[in-house]
Amino acid sequence: MHTEVLIVGAGPTGLTLACDLARRGVSALLVDRATGLFPGSRGKGLQPRTLEVLDDLGVIDAVLAAGGRYPRMQSWADGERGARWDLIERREPGDPSVPYPEVWMLPQWRTQEILHTRLRELGGEAVFGTALTDLTQDDDGVTARLTGPDGAPRTVTADYLVAADGGRSTVRRAVGIPMAGETVDPRPALVADVRISGLDHDDWHIWPTAPGGVLLLCPLPGTPGFQLFALFDDGDPDTAPDTSVDAIRRLVADRTHLPEAAVTEVRWASGFRPRAALAYRFRQGRVFLAGDAAHIHSPAGGQGLNTSVQDAYNLGWKLGQVLGHGAAPALLDSYEAERLPVASDVLEISTSLHRARSGADSDGDGQQVRRGERTEQLGLAYRGGPLSIERRSGLPEDAVRAGDRAPDAELPNGDRLFDVLRGPHFTLVAAGCEPPAVPAGVRSRRVDGYGRGLFLIRPDGYVGLATEDAADLAGYLRSVGVGTAAVAAR
What we know:
Layout: E1 2-8, H1 12-23, E2 28-32, E3 45-46, H2 48-56, H3 60-66, E4 68-69, E5 72-77, E6 80-85, E7 104-105, H4 108-121, E8 126-128, E9 131-138, E10 141-147, E11 153-163, H5 170-175, E12 179-183, E13 189-196, E14 203-207, E15 215-219, E16 226-231, H6 245-255, E17 263-272, E18 275-279, E19 283-284, E20 287-289, E21 295-296, H7 304-325, H8 333-355, H9 373-376, E22 389-390, H10 417-421, E23 426-431, E24 438-439, E25 442-446, E26 453-457, E27 463-467, H11 472-479, E28 486-487
Parallel strand pairs: 1-2, 1-11, 2-8, 5-14, 11-20, 22-27, 23-25
Antiparallel strand pairs: 3-7, 4-7, 5-6, 9-10, 10-11, 12-18, 13-16, 13-17, 14-15, 15-16, 18-21, 19-20, 23-26, 24-28, 26-27
């Protein structure tokens, strides 16, 4: 069979990309070697920028209904409660430019369920139990060898292939892209989803001075369970922790005031060593790397899943313009140019947060590990990138520029700009002037609070062109595959 895009890996990255392509009318085959969706809570923090992406994909109501705000941290020692503090900086609501002011907690398995449901609504599907075993590519496309649940081989051709198959990516190895990395922490770690009796769901409980290493139990909103995280101070770096039910029960009893019997269920568990790694390239010919296949993070700071979702969001509209609207294939070169520097910066954030240990002190307030503006990803931008054209001069320091995330704003009729941005189109924002005529495929609105000028907003919510001259629009739009037949401004 032939598909326009073959996506390998049905985690958050692959599901996001599949949803985005489906709403653009691009045919995509999404496969995963696992027999079903990932069952664990691993990436449980959705940053404000990712919430905006999920809003655009049409799933924000389900995400908000299923999740909850981050609880406060509650330290324990010798069976007694100690200091209590916030892990995140709480934003006061009311900033019209930021509709989702705080990180939102939602177990990864639930995020994936929501995205999978959305994919089905859009007419797509994930094919599980199907592994990629080999691939070749040439100037015309990619040929992939797949093996299904019955062991029978299957050949699929695609215009492009996207590797969303995790840190041990089969695709990345097949195309020969190396990764450079480091061990963030030599101590083995364990993460598990457990049910615990005798512990409230109001706080994120931490035993920072427990014998053997720190242990945390985080209540998972919308479920009766907790996510357990533990480091092993004296563990063998080359040996994974024991993830059996009995071992997890002993671990809880050894490090907390709770008995073994308090652990009533272990739904999922995984041992690992915290590390950081970055692929040398995010593209090899017609093959792209996204998510953990391109960058591996420490869990500290809640950056991995969020960066991965935004990889897919950046790549999706570009594939859509090339495959569906006749944009030059060179547009796809901008994916690596924009996302690799972002991934590199985010890796530094998660690594530094992991190594900032003073916030784990029983009498500390968590200042050095607190998440805030630098982890929210609202400030990540593509200024100076190949698709960011700034034509204005003499701007104030806080001005919205080409390459920036387009902030939300109230429209003159009382609607929200983000309601206009939602969808696979481009949007022209006119600030301090009247909007000119725009071609089909572009929405146009007058907005106050953006300074002055014309702002062409890409489908992924970033300002592509900022200018005061409407004549600049046609050339930019042609470069991204948007026709130039003028229509009346909406």
